[in-house]
From TrEMBL:
Keywords of this entry: Activator, DNA-binding, Transcription, Transcription regulation
Organism placement in taxonomy: Bacteria, Bacillati, Actinomycetota, Actinomycetes, Mycobacteriales
SUPFAM superfamilies xrefs: Periplasmic binding protein-like II (SSF53850), Winged helix' DNA-binding domain (SSF46785)
Name of protein: LysR family transcriptional activator of glutamate synthase operon
Family, as annotated: Belongs to the LysR transcriptional regulatory family.
InterPro entries per UniProt: LysR_HTH_N, LysR_subst-bd, WH-like_DNA-bd_sf, WH_DNA-bd_sf
PANTHER family referenced in this protein's UniProt entry, alphabetically: HTH-TYPE TRANSCRIPTIONAL REGULATOR CYNR (PTHR30346:SF28), TRANSCRIPTIONAL DUAL REGULATOR HCAR-RELATED (PTHR30346)
Residues covered by the HTH lysR-type domain: 1-58
Amino acid sequence: MHLDELQWFVVLAEIEHVTDAAAELGISQPTLSRALARLEEDMGVPLFDRVNRRLRLNAYGRILYEHARRSIAEIRSATERIAELRDPDTGTVRLAFLHSQAGWFVPDLLRRFRVEAPRVRFELFQGAAHEIVERLANGAADLAITSPRPDGFRWHGLYVERLCLAVPREHRFARRSRIRLADAGTEPFVALALDFGLRQLTDELCAEAGISPPVVFEAMEIPTMEGLVAAGLGVAVVPVPRPERAEAGAAYVPLSESSAKRQIGLTWNGNRELPPPAARLVEFLMQNMHDFA
């Protein structure tokens, strides 16, 4: 049953005359008659009583008329909502991002973009890298700001974060200007859970340094790690924080290893067409990345 034919049926049910309904619809009478015949065949019952040269809805037809009107209204509503979502000026961007980007980069991006596109709406998701990749894969997110670069997705590098060793303020490493990760091999570590991208990077750095430090706690967010470091629970590999985001009770000692860094990037599923509002955000970010400090 085609939507057009369902709409034709509704018009015919209201006008109750094939010739007049065909004229109203802008189609030929034989076309409308054949459509009605197919519809009645699909339903398995006649939908009209033929009275002289007019049609009258019967009990079956009234049931179909009631449901057809609701169905057409729902389809129109869905079409309007889809068009609204895809409107580059008023649509919606579904953006996923790492917990660590919630403190400055994502809010700054949204603030700047909303100056240019104030009516675009956002559906935001904050989570771990593996959760973000899952949302990109299943279509729950249009774009993501994440690290490391996920396999099989489009990618645009945004900036590089240097990594450091966060230690308590009174720790023996706190006054160093730089440290090799191998020097911390016997220290208790606070880390993210195994599925997190930063944890995987930390484990790779430890393997390169030839150490296997004990992990005394697995956190879900970097600020939790930093707070526990400040409390003296252990040390942690974290991105060098922006001054206003640093934990007061921790010292941040840059790591000497050249590989002690993580690339933050914008990624999306290249197998799906980006909705126009999301494509607009990509273009905005690529053109204005130099403005983000």
